[in-house]
Amino acid sequence: MTFPIFVDPSYQDPRSNENEADFEWDPNPADFPILAYVMDKLPTISQTLSNAAAEAFDIENPAPPAPKPHFELTERMPHLKKPELISAMRRAVTEIAQTRSVLQTIGPRPNHEVVDAARYKIAEIEAHSSRNSEELNKDYRKYKAVIALDEMHEAYGKMLTAAEKRLERLYEAAVAGVDPVVDDGPQTTEVKEEDAMTEEVVGILKEAESGKGIEMVDLAGRKLRSMPLAFWRLKSLIVLNMSCNRLEAIPGAVGELENLEELNLASNFLSTLPDSICLLSKLRGLNVSKNNITALPDSITNCRSLEDVDVSYNKLTYLPTNIGFELVHIKRLSIQMNKIRSLPTSIGWMKSLRYLDAHFNELQGLPASIGRLSGLEVLILNSNFSDMKELPETISQLINLKELDLSNNQIRCLPATFGHLLNLSKLNLDQNPLEIPPKQVVSLGVDVVKVYMNQRLADMVRADEERRMREAEEQVQEANILTRSTSWLKNMSGSVTDYLGSLGKSDADRYIHNEY
Fold it and tell me: Same domain, yes or no, for 385 and 287?
């Protein structure tokens, strides 16, 4: 399949300065163990070096090959040693290999800021009645190319998930002694059946049909793969718990649960949430933790009644740009165990936020707007490892902060005003290359740390004042010297003028003057 991609020479992905190895072309063994194993067994196709790469390549001293991730799967899955099974699996992932080659040629996925900007520009251009300008059409194609590239990477991610499941079914067939058959269908070893509705679900629907308003349904741990559409139209529902099932998708009909206040979809196999979730205007609690969600829909910002959001243990790389501007009533936000690299500036406008857990991400820092969260009491930022190197000075404005976990990062120096966190009673700074404050100070507890930082700040302020006083004195001295110099020059000028004036009149002049 050919993809019409228009590349603008002026376009540069914000991550283009990063090592290309950072982009995961190959499936991650942690997420797709069988697929990664099979892909590793595929023959590699040599690629033509680019001009820059060719110049950097030294044939006599080639760079050592990049180490491949080691994962030994055959100990747990011994049937992978069977040549016929591996052969069938290779055929099953042919499309994955082809798509990977296409993406490697086209380039890495643009980040969400670039994609959002491209969508905005497209909407702006389309708003014009005509696009007769060649320059305008060129820009339009450029932004469309960015969107197309993002969608291709999104589709590739879904292909990886589907391929892993297909390989799992092939392996199950091999274990059962059935010849592995490559099939594009959803199942290969068992008869395709509709998910049977449990008696419990049937009873709920019958009860609803009788006219009785059902406000709470708990179907956690029922191994459900799907639910009938009629279930998603129980308008009286207030609390719905569908956690610990096998749901792979939530239909758009969920938006019809107009009175829903609590929705628990934790521990399923969801990769996305429907845009119609924005219709749940009364939703206060949302738990979609422990799924495979890669991005939250922007429409979630319309759920303005939300107070508790748990999206932990997913595959998020960012949060919606305007999430903080719209969801101002959130009190508890759990985003730990994702791959988030930065928090949006808007998070500083979550004026009701009391609890924020962002540990085990890839955060490179915090936005300065974090200081606006004056009601924040708990902030957990541990285990962002080499990415988290510093904190903004504005963190000292979190006047109600009681607990702060910064362990397992690369922080060397706390902000100078850190001691202003008067209510801070629990602080974890373990596993950081701290220089300020020294580790011996940290070992004495949070109160000693605050005293140390306040004393250090006072010393800095005093040193700054002394420096400014010295500079002021030097300026005064310079001004005095200048004044004295000016006065001396004036006196000298007067003396010279008088002297020159006296020289101007000779005896001959006086004689001539008397004669006439």
Answer: yes
